[in-house]
Amino acid sequence: MSERAKLCIISQYFLPDINGDVIRLLNSLKVLRKLNLDITIVTAFPHYPNGRIPKKYGKKLFVRERWSGLKIIRAFILPLPHEGFIKRLLLYTSFTFSSIFAILAVGKVDIVWAFSQKFFSYVTGLVLKLIYNAKLIIDITDIWPEAIVNTGYMKNNNLMFKATKKIINFFFKMSDKITTLTKAMKDMIISRGINPYKISIIPNVIRLSPQKIQSQQTSEKFIVMYSGNLGPNYDFKTLLKSALKLKDEDILFIIRGTGEMESYISKYIKVNQLQNLKLDRKILPKDELTKYLNKADVFLLPMKKCPYPNASFPIKFLDYLSCGKPIICCAEGFLSNLVMRYQVGIAIPPANPDELVKAILTLKDSGETREKMSKNAQLLASRLFSFNVLEKEFSSLIRSLHNMMS
To answer: With contact defined as beta carbons under 8 Å apart, do 325 and 310 qualify?
Structure first.
C-alpha cells in the first residue's frame, strides 16, 4: 500500500444536487481531506430532485471533472424525478450499472466508502473490493428493509422484506467496516449478528453559533415551521389537523419543501380554507435556508407511528437544532428520548393532534421555556453532533483501516 491511501467514495448525490446525503458527504470531506487521503468521488450526473440533467452531459456514460481539488467521475443516470417506489428503483439501479463502468476510470484504490443510494452503492463498492482487494466501508443512514416498511412501501415480514434483509446482511458481512448515524442504529445492526467493533458511529454534524440562535422574527404571529422533504414517512395529517384546530389562534404554520405529499397538503389547505397555514415550495441554498429557518419560533418534526422508529435519523433534526429553537418531536424511540433527555423541545407520541396542539400552545405561552431549550440545543450539538466528534470518529476509523492494510 502506498503511503497516501486512495479512497473512492460512491455517492449517487453530489453538488450541485442538494439533499441530506450531500450535506453529510460535504461535512465528511472537510474531515477526510485532513487525513492524508487521495480522494475520488464517483457520483451521478446532476439530477435531483426533478430528473432534469444538464445538456452538457448528453448521452455520455461518464464524465471526469474536478471539484475543489478532488477528482470527480460522474456516471449516467436515468432522467426521472424522485417520486414513487418504481422511479426511485430505476434511478438507483441505473446509477449502479453505470457506476460499475465508471470505476474502470478510477484505477487502483485502497479504501471504498459505499456512501449513498442505500444498498445499491454497496454493489459498486463490492466490485471495487473484489477487483482491487480494497477495504470496503458501507454507510448506513437508513436501515433497510425496516426503513422501507416505515414509509409504507413494503409490508413487514413479507417475502420481499425477508429477501431484502438477507441481501443487506450479505453486504454487512462482506464489508470491512460499517458507518452509521446513531447508537440506536448501531444496536439494530449488532442485533443481526454483526461484530460491534466493525461499526463506527459517524454522526451528521452542525455548526451552532450565537448569531444563528438570535431571533430573526419578521412576523407578528407565532411561527410554527416544518422544513424538509414532503415525503410519506412524515405525518402531515396530524400536522394539518393541528393547524385546523388552531385556526383562530395568532399562529402561522409554515410547511416548506417539495415531495410526494405536496398535492395532499395543498388540497387540505384549500378544502379547509386554512388562512393560518402557508405551503412554501422554494428550494433554497444553505445560507438562505438558515435565514429562512430562523423565522420560526418552534419547529415540528412529525414522524409517523411506525414499527421501526430507530431505523432512520432525519437530518432536518440537525437543521432545526442549529437554529437553537424548540423542536416539537412527534416520534418514538431514540429521537424522542434525545429530545427529552437534553430538553431541546417537547416529545409527544405520533399521530396525536390534541397533544400537538397542547405542545404548541405551551411553547407559545412561555418565552422562558423557549430560551432554556435554545441553550440546551447548544449543549446537545457540542456533545453529539460537532465537528470535533466527527474528526475523532473518522481518525479512529481510518487508523483502523490502515492497520488492516499493513
So the answer is: no
AA identity, residue 72: I
CA–CA distance, 379 with 84 (Å, rounded to integer) = 38
- Burial degree of 307 (CB within 10 A; 0-12, 13-18, 19+): exposed
Write the pLDDT tens digit of every residue in 261-309: 999 999 999 999 999 999 999 877 777 888 899 999 999 999 999 999 9
Reduce the DSSP state of residue 398 to 3 states and report it: helix
What pTM, to 2 d.p., does this model score?
Answer: 0.87
Amino acid at 195: N
Give CA separation, 377 vs 35, 318, 345, 367, in Å: 30, 10, 9, 15
**Short-list 84, 83, 67, CA closest to 16:** 67
List beta partners, residue 327: 299, 345
C-alpha cell at 224: 410554527
What nine digits make up the cell of 39? 480522494
User: C-alpha cell of 83?
Assistant: 417520486
Classify residue 220 as left (phi > 0), alpha (psi -120 to 50) or beta.
alpha
For residue 31, which of 287, 393, 318 has the smallest C-alpha distance?
Answer: 393
**CA-wise closest residue to 205 among 403, 29, 17:** 29
CA-angle at 181, arms to 312 and 326, nearest 5°: 70
